[in-house]
Structure formats: C-alpha cells, structure tokens
Specification:
The protein is α+β, with helices and mostly antiparallel strands and about 400 residues long. It is built from 13 helices and 13 strands.
Length: about 400
C-alpha cells in the first residue's frame, strides 16, 4: 500500500509539473516577465541572494527588442543589494541618452511592487550600504562614484546647488573617469542669481515725435529711428542713445527778410543723449525701467549732394543746436531667452530678447536762437531690445 501511495504521488506531481510548464510555455512574453518578477520579489523579501540572482538572469533572458524585464533603476538597486558593483559600473560606463530612450520605448513591465520594495529596503539600510561600498574591493574613484550614484538613486540629492558642486568636484578630480558622461547627464542646471552681475543692453526702435509750443506749428510730426546701447548692473541702466528723425516745416522760418527756410522743406532732427535708469519691475516676462537723461537737440535742413558728390545744405544758415533734458519709461515684454554661450562662450544667465515700448518727454531750448523753435516734444518708440548679462 505504501508503494502504491508513493507511486500515485509521484505520478500526480509529474502531471502537475508538466501542466505548469505547458502553462508558462504558452504565456505571452509580458505575462512571463510578470510571473518571473513575482518570484524575484519573493526571493528578495526572503533575502535569498541565490534566488534573486537566478530570477534576475531569467528576466535578462526574457528581454528582447520589444520587452524589458527590469527598469534601469530597479536593476541598479539590485546590483547594490547584491554587491554586484562590476555589473553596475559596466552599465554606467556604457550609458547614453539614445540607449536610455530606446529602453523607454520598449514595453515596460506590468505595475507591481518590486521598485517600492527595493527603494524602501535600500533607503532603510542606506548607512549599511554606504559602509559596504567602503569595505568593497574598489579603488577610490569607484567608491566615490558608487556613493554618489546611490545617493542619486535614493533621491538624497536635495540641495541642487550643493549636489551640482559635488558632481563637478568628482569630474574635476577624475577628468578621465568612465563615469563622467553619466554624471554630466544627471547634474542639475543651477540658475545663477543675477545680483552682482553686469551686462549690456542693445535696442533698435522706430520712433515718432509730436511737438509742443511754437514747434507744433513750425514742424510737422517727426518719424525716425532710435538706437540705444548701454550697461546694466544690479538693475541700474546706463545708456547712450541716438534718435534720428525727419519732418517737414509747417511754416517759414526767417533769420532775416532775405534769408528764409520755406514751408514744406525737409529737416532732420538729431538727439544724442546719455540716460540713467533703474529696473522698477523686473519679472520673468516683463520689465519696467524709468529713465532720465540729457544731451543735445540738433535741428538742421536736409542735405543734398553737389556735382562732386559732397553733402551740402541749401539753407546753410539754418542749423540750430541746444541742450535738452528728457524723461522716459522703457517697457520690455520678454519674448525668449538668449543663451549667453552664443555670445560670451559661457553659461546662460537671464539674457533675453524683448519687444520694447519707450515713451517720454524732451525739454529743449531751441527757441533761444529763434522764437519759432520754442517748444518741447512728446515721443513714442517701439522695437526690439536685447539684454546680455
């Protein structure tokens, strides 16, 4: 009877084992991967190092161009848990963004608790893991890198500036390290504060001016261009500007009864100035800068060319120059960032291109030489501006 029961048990075991093998054989690739991952979780929770190694190898065998068995961070955490630093270093050294992108396009494993268990366990035992790294048969470079990578995988790199400095220190100390490609990939881009920096500004604007006082009758509205070049430092702005405009005379201007600049003739207006301003508002998309300044106001007839190609004026006695004061407001609507590396061959730092609107008032003293030129100007300008820091 005992032999009969033993034989029956053996036959049933063989039957069910064969049935289970057939079931696994006819599962899809994704289902096979899910089944193996469950066994891997069980082995990990039981701290069965041999089982973890076997099931990890099984997942690697099941992977192909369409399916992945372990996500990269799961695999790397397993390397730390088993102390397989050689496999870890080999994968890191072969890292490339293209390869990572190809892995991401594969069918990922079905959601389970593998990563959560790995992450929680290694985080709870992180001090033991760091000690294991120091006791492992590794050189100083490998120990330093393994420590940095474990901190990254366990998300211990909270302060971005300090973390970036540590990665830079490793790259500087080991400039030929096989791990530097990966460290450069994970290094955060820390934005430098703009305080204490100096840069320059450049703008090109189209301008229109309306005269006040006697000038409103003497000159028609002016149209021209307005250039600005300046230095920016800690929100302060120092700018040299030149506005060039043209307009026709609205009435005759006389020096004496025999010397007349007649109505309808063209004239040119030049205003070289120096302006000082402060960024009252400087937001990521908007900037407001009130400015004051002074310079010259120059009004003269348009020039023509003689037979020899020289520039001459038909009304040489009508050239007027005076000092001027001005107050204006610059409004910048920031359109896009500009990489300073394209200009200064260094990292970017808040440089931008913007639409600039500028309006203000000019107080002039042209009327001292001719009362028909007594008056001031309200001006408006719009165009493109750049700030490089």
């Amino acid at each position: 009877m005992k032999y009969f029961l033993f034989t029956l048990t053996l036959l049933l075991s063989t039957f069910f084992a064969g049935a289970q093998t057939d079931t696994i054989r006819f599962q899809s690739k994704g289902e096979q991967i899910s089944a193996v991952r469950k066994e891997l979780i069980n082995s990990f929770l039981s701290e069965d190092f041999v089982g973890v190694g076997l099931w990890t190898d099984s997942l690697h065998t099941l992977e192909n161009l369409e399916y992945t068995g372990l996500v990269w961070d799961e695999r790397w955490l397993l390397y730390y848990w088993t102390g397989s630093y050689g496999n870890l270093f080999e994968e890191v050294a072969q890292f490339s963004e293209t390869r990572r992108a190809i892995d991401d396009l594969k069918n990922q494993p079905q959601s389970d608790s593998l990563f959560e268990w790995l992450d929680r366990t290694l985080y709870d035992r992180r001090f033991d893991q760091f000690q294991s790294i120091q006791k492992a048969f590794l050189n100083d470079e490998e120990k330093a890198f393994a420590t940095l990578l474990l901190e990254y995988l366990l998300r211990l790199d909270h302060d971005e500036k300090e973390w970036a400095s540590r990665l830079d220190a490793f790259i500087k100390h080991y400039p030929d390290s096989r791990f530097n490609t990966y460290l450069s990939y994970i290094k955060p881009k820390v934005k430098q504060k703009s305080s204490g920096q100096t840069g320059f500004t450049l703008d090109f604007l189209l301008t229109q001016g309306n005269w006040r006082g006697q000038l409103e009758r003497t000159l028609r509205p002016s149209y021209g261009i307005d250039f600005g070049l300046g230095i920016w430092h800690n929100r302060w702005n120092y700018m040299v500007r030149l506005a060039i405009a043209g307009q026709k005379l609205g009435r005759d201007i006389e020096n004496n009864p025999d010397d007349v600049w007649p109505k309808g003739e063209s004239s040119n207006f030049f205003t070289p100035t120096f302006d000082l301003g402060y960024d009252l508002i400087n937001k990521p998309k908007f900037r407001c800068t009130p400015m004051v300044g002074g310079g010259l106001a120059i009004l003269k007839p348009s020039s023509t060319e003689d037979e020899d190609g020289n520039s001459v004026s038909e009304y040489p006695g009508f050239s007027f120059t005076s000092g001027q004061l001005n107050a204006s407001v610059n409004l910048d609507v920031k359109l896009h960032d500009i990489d300073d590396a394209d200009v200064f061959e260094r990292s970017a730092s808040d440089a931008y291109g913007a639409i600039r609107v500028r309006f203000g008032y000019r107080w002039m003293y042209l009327g001292k030489t001719n009362n028909l030129l007594d008056g001031n100007m309200f001006f408006f300008a719009i165009g493109y501006s750049m700030l490089f820091r």
